[in-house]
Structures are given as structure tokens and as C-alpha cells.
Write a structure and sequence with these properties.
Order of helices and strands of chain A: HEHEEHHEHEHEEHEEEEHEEEEHEEEH
Largest interface: A-B, 26 and 28 residues
Largest sheet of chain B: 4 strands, antiparallel
Strand order of the largest sheet of chain B: 3-4-5-6
Radius of gyration of chain A: 22 Å
Largest sheet of chain A: 8 strands, mixed
Number of helices of chain B: 1
Oligomer: heterodimer
Shape of chain B: globular
Distance between the termini of chain B: 29 Å
Strand content of chain B: 35-45%
Helix content of chain B: under 10%
Helix content of chain A: 25-40%
CATH architecture of chain B: 2-Layer Sandwich
Structural class of chain B: mainly beta
Distance between the termini of chain A: 42 Å
Number of helices of chain A: 10
Radius of gyration of chain B: 14 Å
Shape of chain A: globular
Number of strands of chain A: 18
CATH class of chain B: Alpha Beta
CATH superfamily of chain B: Folate-binding superfamily
Strand content of chain A: 25-35%
Number of domains of chain B: 1
């Protein structure tokens, strides 16, 4: 794989762009690997990359049932931040931010990481108190956070509704200046290319249906196109975690729910941050192509359908127009859904399992994209060492039975309310 | 929009209802101290890619609790019964 640089761009431009190489190899799968990662999304590919890079494991395959990045990695609203509160979460997400900052250079692929700032707008003094608490926790963990007054928010985001008629008048905001967005597809392709260059086989259109067993130990997978053996199997399949886990005899606390996302037609640059408008559960930013990228709540009923319906469209449109009245003139270009693996505390699972040879990465709810680098980094560590790293030590399967929930939302053990 | 056929109110948009998840979990009696049984009921979920048996409450209508059988990919609703008539597996 040739190195991307200004020089290689010039060289290829001068030769008619006819000599660019495939970004990642497309090999036939071998009969056996040291590690199989099931799931060719951001997390699976990042895991394979860090297994090769950090742990020197050479013989790895990523098995993807469709094309890489066709799941939630290609469907999210691209937000990257580390404004978490629970101590099991905060260092993990900040580790992810540190990986994001160097990711394009590390992968030699422009993932368009844009630390444009994450602006959490609040509508009451009590909501601001909650954000002050969160900002203080962030600062105690070495993460920059600022509290903004209404006047400050007016300067940062003048397009929001500051009129006397506003149904939910803006009171202030919390800003994480180092948070922002990244280009989700580029993250998938960047990790795929870098992993492939380190010898990882990326195998598309192979769906894992079941496992190979030797007694109580998993020794490989059975796919739609044949059986492949491996000493270790790690699953990173987000919304499809339950069926694959159940095949291994694991009972999990996961419910799959649909999350919808939207993009408007392109307009000139106006929204310079990721904005959360907390009167509703609503967030938006502007992509570099110019469209507003936005979304709200999950639909709140179990679903594996990667599509939405009009109830959410109505809810989210109301929020967009209330937050940014001028957006009422915009046309929505695209609208889609992903499958969220919701846990009872809204926090993820990255762990060894009671089944020998099987490792689990899932339960990301709707927050997996920002975690992509750290999730891959930690899952690779867990697989290579048969033990969690400090960063994912809290992300266990059995924390619910032990009363050690990582309950960011504080809404109780209801998957659909996280 | 899911259309749920409430036995009391007729076919209504799902926005009139509140979802309350898996309806197949029997609750141990409050006097039961079996930790594993409680963990299973409160946390463990089948989460089928197929027919799901679930609670909906008609909060903006008659406020009755219903048990709905719905396919989690097609969203087709197979049946709607009052929760009082459900039989646990």
C-alpha cells in the first residue's frame, strides 16, 4: 500500500490518476487465523488494527456480513466528545479523544477530525447547575470544559432562537471546545487500509451464523460461505449482538432499538459547532458538504429495522425548527436508521466472556462512534491479554448483577430510556 | 408509524402509547431472595430478531396495559391483548 502524501497526490495527478492502489486487500479467507473479529464496522476494524499494531498479532481476519461500514459506522451523526460523568467512562472517552487527535497521521488517512466544539445548550438554572457539575468533573479529569452565559451562546450560535417568543428560552450552555466531528466513512476506510497494510485480512460478504466448538471452547466460526477456525473470536456487531451471543450461550441485557438520523440539503457554513438543544433530546451539526446532520431520541421500541418512520420525523423536525427557526426553509435530503444495542445503564460492554475463546464488544447504545478508537484499542488489549485494560475495566457483562451500573442518564434499568 | 389496535379504543398511532419492553419476564414474589431470578427478570433480555412480545400502555387513551406481539424487522403486529389476559411462558 503506497503512502498518501502531497507528493503522491502530485505524482498521481501528473500520471492521470491511473496508478492509485486498492486501499485495502481483498483476499480469500485462510482456513485458520489467530484471531477472527466478527463485524467490519469501525470498532471491529479498529480492533484488528490495534491487535496488529500494539500487540504484534499477525494472523487476523475481520469478517463482515455486508460491506465494511454498512452498519452503524455508516449511519451515525459523526459526533466525537468526552463529556462523560461516571468515573468508569470519563478516562475511556478521553483516551479515545487522544487517539482521535492523532488518528489521521497514525492511519495515513484523512478522517477529517474537526474539533469544532460541542455546545450543550440549556434552558434553566437547574439544567445549567447539572452542566456545571459535569464540567467540573471533566476538569478534574484534565478535560477542557467551559460554562457559557446566554450572551456567550448568542455570540457562538446566533442562528438559535433568542427571540422573545422562544418557547424554551436559552439560559446558557456547556462547551467542550476540543470535541467535534469526524467523517464516519473515512474512519472505516482509514482503519481498514491501515489494518490491511499490517496483514489483517478484510473479508466482506461473509456472515457468521454459528460457532465451531471443541468441547466448551469456541474454535472458529461457521459462515454463509464456509467454516473458518481461530484461536480467538471477538464479536463487535452492535445491534446484532444478541443473536450471535445467544449462539454461544450468553444471556445479555441488550435490547436492539432503532435510531434515525437526517441530513438536509447543503447550505453555506452557518453552524460552527456540534449543538445539543436540550429542551428536547436533539443534536445537530453541519457537515463539510454543507448539510445539517441531525437527530434525536431512539424510537423506543425493540427493532432491527434499519429504517425509521414518521413519528420520529415529526418529533425531530419540531426540535430543529424550534432550535433554529431558519432551518424551517430547508429540505431534508436523506433519512435512515441504525440498530442500537441498548443496555440497562446506557454504558458499553468490552470484556472476556465465560466462554473460552470468545470476547465481546457491544452495548454501545447510540454512543459508539466517538468511542471507535478507544473501543478498538481496549478490545485489542482484552483479546491479546485475556484481561481488560484499566480503561475498559468497568465495562463488564456482570456489572448489573453486582450493582455496579455505569448510570450516566440516571433513568433506572430500562434499556429504552437510556 | 406503528398502528396498534387497542381492544378498547381501536387502531391508534403508536405515539399515543408508552412502550415498556419485554412482556415475557415473570417477576419473582417480593419475598423471594433468589438473586439470579431477579437479575434475569430485571436485566436479561431475549431481544429477538423476529416476533417480540412486549408491553405498551395506552397512556394518551384508555391507559390500559396491553401485550403486543410484533415482528422486530417488519414491524407487523400479530396480536394485541389486554395485559390481564396474558399467559406467561
Amino acid at each position: 500500500m503506497s503512502h498518501y502524501s502531497a507528493w503522491s497526490l502530485l505524482r498521481n495527478a501528473l500520471t492521470g490518476h491511473k496508478h492509485w492502489e486498492r486501499a485495502w486487500r481483498d483476499p480469500q479467507p485462510k482456513k485458520t487465523y489467530d484471531v477472527i473479529i466478527v463485524g467490519g464496522g469501525g470498532h471491529g476494524l479498529a480492533t484488528a488494527y490495534y491487535l496488529a499494531k500494539n500487540h504484534g498479532i499477525k494472523n487476523i481476519a475481520v469478517l463482515e456480513k455486508g460491506y465494511i461500514g454498512s452498519g452503524n459506522a455508516g449511519r451515525n451523526t459523526t459526533i466525537v466528545r468526552s463529556n462523560y460523568m461516571m468515573q468508569e467512562n470519563t478516562p475511556f472517552y478521553e483516551h479515545s479523544m487522544s487517539l482521535w487527535r492523532d488518528l489521521s497521521a497514525d492511519l495515513n488517512y484523512n478522517v477529517m477530525f474537526s474539533p469544532r466544539g460541542y455546545l450543550y445548550v440549556v434552558m434553566s438554572p437547574n439544567a445549567l447547575d447539572a452542566q456545571i457539575r459535569r464540567a467540573n468533573i471533566m476538569r478534574l479529569n484534565g478535560i477542557r470544559a467551559e460554562i457559557l452565559t446566554r450572551e456567550d451562546v448568542m455570540k457562538e450560535a446566533p442562528y438559535l432562537d433568542f427571540s422573545a417568543n422562544a418557547r424554551f428560552p436559552i439560559y446558557g450552555a456547556m462547551l467542550q471546545p476540543d470535541a467535534g466531528t469526524a467523517r464516519h466513512d473515512a474512519v472505516v476506510w482509514g482503519y481498514a487500509r491501515a489494518a490491511s497494510d499490517l496483514g489483517v485480512d478484510i473479508i466482506q460478504n461473509y456472515e457468521v451464523l454459528d460457532y465451531e466448538w471443541s468441547g466448551e471452547r469456541i474454535t472458529g466460526v461457521k459462515t454463509t460461505r464456509g467454516d473458518i477456525s481461530a484461536a480467538k473470536v471477538g464479536i463487535a456487531v452492535a445491534g446484532n449482538t444478541s443473536p450471535l451471543a445467544q449462539k454461544a450461550g450468553l444471556a445479555l441485557p441488550i435490547e436492539s432499538h432503532v435510531l434515525q438520523a437526517y441530513v438536509t440539503e447543503s447550505i453555506k457554513p452557518i453552524v460552527n459547532h456540534v449543538v445539543v438543544w436540550s429542551a428536547s433530546y436533539f443534536y445537530f451539526s453541519q457537515s463539510d458538504k454543507g448539510g445539517l446532520v441531525f437527530g434525536g431520541h431512539i424510537d423506543r421500541y425493540n427493532s432491527y429495522a434499519q429504517r425509521g418512520n414518521l413519528a420520529n420525523v415529526g418529533e425531530v423536525s419540531q426540535a430543529l425548527v424550534s432550535a433554529m427557526p431558519s432551518a424551517a426553509r430547508l429540505r431534508v435530503l436523506r433519512h435512515w436508521g441504525g440498530i442500537m444495542d441498548m443496555t440497562p445503564d446506557g454504558s458499553p460492554i468490552i470484556t472476556t466472556t465465560p466462554v473460552d475463546g470468545l470476547y465481546l464488544n457491544g452495548g454501545w447504545c447510540y454512543g459508539g462512534f466517538k468511542a471507535t478508537p478507544a473501543s478498538g484499542w481496549c478490545f485489542a488489549h482484552t483479546i491479546a491479554n485475556d484481561k481488560a485494560h484499566d480503561f475498559n475495566a468497568g465495562f463488564t457483562m456482570d456489572r448489573f448483577a453486582k450493582g455496579r451500573y455505569i448510570d450516566e442518564a440516571g433513568t433506572g434499568p430500562y434499556n429504552h430510556l437510556q | 408509524m406503528l398502528r396498534i389496535d387497542c381492544p378498547y379504543c381501536g387502531k391508534r398511532d403508536h405515539e399515543e402509547f408508552s412502550y415498556f419492553g419485554d412482556a415475557t419476564k415473570p417477576y419473582p414474589g417480593l419475598e423471594v431472595e433468589n438473586h439470579d431470578a431477579w437479575v434475569d427478570t430485571v436485566y436479561t433480555r431475549n431481544n429477538p430478531r423476529g416476533i417480540h412480545t412486549e408491553f405498551w400502555q395506552h397512556t394518551l387513551g384508555c391507559r390500559r396495559w396491553l401485550v403486543v406481539k410484533r415482528h422486530t424487522v417488519t414491524h407487523d403486529i400479530e396480536s394485541v391483548i389486554p395485559a390481564s389476559e396474558r399467559t406467561l411462558p
